[in-house]
Amino acid sequence: MSTSPSPRLMRIAIGSVAVGLGVLALKAVAWQLTGSIALMSDALESLVNVAAALAVIVALHVAHRPADENHPYGHHKAEFFSAVLEGVLIVLAALLILREAYAGFITPRALDAPLTGLALNAGASLINGAWAVVLIRYGRRHRSPALVADGKHLMTDVVSSVGVLVGFVLAFASGWWWLDPVMAALVALNILWSGWTVIKGSLSGLMDEAVSDEEMATIRRVISLSASDDDALEAHDLRTRHAGQVTFIDFHLVMPGETTVEAAHNLCDRIEAALMEALPDARVTIHVEPEHKAKHSGIVVLS
């Protein structure tokens, strides 16, 4: 196994830092020009984006380290820890925004330079939206929980920014300046939900949640078909789990008692190769049993 992430994966992760810094700069200028608490909340969330993107880079490096004596199954779960960290940072940012929103609601103030601030914030939101789509698609394609979590976070940032812009326009048009901190509070609540979603999804991975129903159906079909040319009787006690990009699969394969060790080993190699072709990052463990161990349940081998 490679001891480092693929160059393209790292370029995506480093690109997140660059995009985050650029967006942060635009939103910080918009906030300074207007004095808007809602735009400040938007800028603060972008600061969290930068910190989270840096955490993704570290997680990818750790996750691709080879297995060692202390970590015989590898370091793949490091990406889940990165996603949990990102969720915690999101929640902290939301709490800070709520504090500022409360202060702004108690003492509302008029906003300055609205058009320039709106333009800068809208441009930053467009950049964030485009990059979020890239992260989510690439992260799902390569089974990277850290990149998917980062992309989903950016997408919630885009939704928050749209709400901020709408509230900003309404506050300026009506002169109801208290709308600005109210909108900041709504953004904070949206961010809190985003943080909980990221943490919940990552904890599922840390708790060794099984693969999706679609992937499970694929695994069962591959096992059944790849053993059809031999004397295998059934496969049972199938277990699966995800760890970052890797899918761990283990099951018991029932063979006739007279099957030689070599024949059983060769069949296991063929099944493992077929599973790895269907799921490129699979790690397969097969326990061979004689036919009196059959449970007459699980996966029936097609003849």
Automatic annotation (TrEMBL):
Q: Which GO terms describe its biological process?
A: intracellular zinc ion homeostasis
Q: How does it sit in the membrane?
A: Multi-pass membrane protein
Q: Answer yes or no on keyword Transmembrane helix.
A: yes
Matching entries from Pfam families are given as:
Cation_efflux (PF01545), ZT_dimer (PF16916)
Instruction: Provide the transmembrane region boundaries.
Output: 12-31, 37-60, 80-98, 118-138, 158-176
Q: Name one GO molecular function term.
A: zinc efflux antiporter activity
Q: Which organism is it from?
A: Roseovarius bejariae
> Where on the tree of life does the source sit, at the highest rank?
Bacteria
- Give the UniProt family note: Belongs to the cation diffusion facilitator (CDF) transporter (TC 2.A.4) family.
The alphabetical list of record keywords is: Cell membrane, Membrane, Transmembrane, Transmembrane helix, Transport
Q: What is this protein called?
A: Protein p34
Q: Where is the Cation efflux protein cytoplasmic domain?
A: 218-291
Record keywords: Zinc included? no
For the Cation efflux protein transmembrane domain, which residue ranges apply?
Answer: 16-207
- GO CC terms on record? plasma membrane
